[in-house]
Specification:
The complex is a heterodimer. By secondary structure, chain A is mainly alpha-helical. Chain A has 4 helices and no strands. The longest helix of chain A is centred in the N-terminal third of the chain and has 32 residues, at about 15-50. In chain B, about 30% of the residues lie in helices and about 25% in strands. Classes of the chains: A mainly alpha, B alpha+beta.
Chain lengths: ~120, ~350
């Protein structure tokens, strides 16, 4: 935990808040270019193959984890491009954030499978 | 943002046209419809009755629904063709003239009236063995169809109640079947309706010059008067429309009213509309319903059977089973009335 906080403080020492927000925004925009069609495609695939819904939800969870990886990878890339001289290894920080968000995706997916879908399919 | 754009701009440029093309496939709708397998819904999740609450049911009674997509996108149409379970064709008839929203409204009107008819039939049947059960029925006339030439098309909604119209000689016509006899002298008449919010409104409808009709389709439905009905029942909100669950709703409601468990521990499903006399009616997309029931491991599947014609649902169901290699023996049960289904379930040895 202390290493995690230490890495955060190093980033905030090196980059301004504006630069960090710009990196996150850029990563979000580029990830959205992939996410938006993916969401539409999955919605349409589910509508045609509803009887395989359980499999689709599992697939969506996996793809959301991959998109989360892309998002964090782009944040890292953006920060590196802003300050090429920044040598601190921020991978542990990125990975920790990624895992936290992945866990949230899995929980939401499981809630869909076992709670919301049975309620909606009435 | 700028750094990422500089780095990835060459890739963005290459992918821009394919990306736009893909988005076009995802949003462009075509005048087709797709029927695809859906799922099964236990009726007790939709309707509950304040009666026999200690009774435990070992099996279940479920209605079957399919996915009916009107005007799918090109992408949906494309991926649908990969499965032998799906059926796609060009929109014709009313489906071609109604918007998706209008079709939804009709579908939910059908569901609402179907549930009412199911309750009536089940209560009447249960009342034969238990005089404590009472059902009171009344009739209402609803707007079920609209032709494109209907005057005030957007003002009159599907499901609005027809109250009366002022016919020739200023006669107040309340029986919708008499409208033709009182609309001879003129082309325009005042019609009175009640909308979903309970507001009464009138519109002057004019006959189409070519068709010589007003362009409105009115249906009379049998509804339950809840105040004079015992035991009380509750309907939960449902996301699934259409009247095809009528037979199974009737069976499930009947099962809630009687002491014995007619499911005999089996997973019972099926399809078919129900009328107030307990007759089972045809439904669409029987092939997709068979597949839905099959993938959901249903023990018994009731199918409407009224004749040996090639378009009879039971005949179509047998063809669907043969096509997909499903053994229909002791699984698909043909029925023409609610009583047939009841007799079949009662004849099963526990």
């Amino acid at each position: 935990m202390s290493k995690y906080i230490e890495l955060y403080s190093k980033i905030f020492e090196e980059f301004s808040v504006k630069e960090i927000i710009s990196a996150i925004f850029g990563a979000f925009v580029y990830t959205s270019f992939i996410t938006v069609p993916f969401v539409i495609i999955m919605g349409q695939v589910i509508s045609v193959y509803l009887y395989l819904l359980t499999y689709w939800v599992v697939l969506i969870i996996i793809v959301m984890i991959l998109l989360n990886y892309v998002f964090h990878h782009l944040i890292k890339q953006s920060l590196k491009l802003k300050h090429p001289e920044f040598k601190t290894n921020i991978n542990p920080l990125i990975l920790t954030n990624q895992i936290i968000i992945d866990i949230i995706f899995v929980i939401i997916g499981l809630l869909f499978l076992f709670v919301w879908i049975p309620i909606l399919m009435v | 943002m700028k750094e990422l754009t500089d780095k990835y701009w060459p890739i963005v440029k290459i992918l821009f046209i394919p990306y736009l093309f893909m988005m076009f496939l995802l949003v462009y709708q075509i005048d087709y419809f797709i029927n695809a397998p859906g799922g099964i819904t236990e009726v007790e999740k939709i309707i509950s009755i304040d009666y026999n609450e200690d009774k435990t049911e070992e099996g279940s009674i479920s209605s079957t629904f399919v996915v009916s997509l009107s005007r799918p996108t090109f992408f949906q149409f494309l991926i649908s063709s990969f499965s032998d379970y799906n059926y796609a064709n060009i929109l014709t008839g009313n489906s071609a003239t109604y918007t998706n929203d209008e079709q939804n409204k009709i579908s939910f009107l059908d569901k609402y009236t179907s549930v009412n008819e199911a309750i009536i039939v089940a209560y009447q049947k249960a009342a034969e063995i238990n005089p404590e059960i009472v059902i009171d029925v009344y009739q209402k006339v609803f707007v079920r169809g609209k032709a494109p030439y209907l005057s005030f098309y957007d003002d009159i909604e599907f499901g609005d109640e027809f109250l009366y119209m002022m016919g020739d000689g200023d006669v107040k016509v309340e029986d919708f079947q008499e409208i033709g006899n009182y609309t001879i002298d003129s082309d325009s008449y005042d019609f009175f309706f009640k909308n979903n919010e309970g507001e009464t409104y009138s519109r002057t409808l004019t006959k189409d010059e070519e068709e010589k009709k007003f362009g409105i389709v009115l249906y009379q439905y049998n509804l339950v008067n809840k105040e004079n009905t015992y035991p009380t029942y509750h309907e939960n909100n449902s996301n699934i429309g259409g009247p095809s669950g009528g037979l199974l709703q009737t069976l499930a409601i009947y099962n809630m009213l009687v002491e014995e468990d007619i499911t005999k521990g089996l997973k019972v499903a099926g399809t078919g509309t129900i009328d107030i006399f307990g007759n089972v009616g045809y439904i669409g997309a029987i092939e997709q319903k068979i597949i839905t029931a099959y993938v959901n491991d249903v023990d018994i599947f009731f199918v409407p059977h009224k004749s040996d014609a090639s378009n009879d649902d039971y005949i179509l169901a047998l063809k669907a089973c043969a096509k997909h290699g499903i053994d229909s023996t002791d699984w698909i049960v043909p029925v023409s009335t609610f009583q047939d289904a009841l007799d079949y379930l009662e004849g099963i040895d526990e």
